[in-house]
Amino acid sequence: MCRTVLQDIYPNLRLADYLAPDGNSEIEINWEDEPLYLGAFKMNLPGQYEYQRRLFSQFMTGLEGGTPDPFVLAGDDISWVAEWVEGAVTSAINAVNKIAVLFGGGDWDELQGPITRWNELKPIELPSPKSAAHERQRAISTEPSEVV
User: Is the pTM of this model over 0.90?
Assistant: First the structure.
């Protein structure tokens, strides 16, 4: 279908000249038929907050210890607003700030980047479900019991 549309738009272009011989140059995937396909956009499912927090915070890896990790993730799926350009831009700003620090740079005089403002901008770190359950159990076991 794509070839037909392109041929209609560019009638003088001979697409076959640019494709692999024997018609093996392209494949088509119907995502609706794929068993793990969940829709057009990535969305966090219940219980995935910690994974998303860690992805979003990845650009801070090594900065506090003075040995910044040069690997940086960016894109809308790394942000809190997946599928939106705003999320891609936000994560790109984080990545660029990290790269500037890696090369000895940092903030502009009057404009602080996300690394400098991290303590006020960082996502809340929730207690893990195991530690929260452990704390509840410990609170129950340390409460004085009533004697009837």
Answer: no
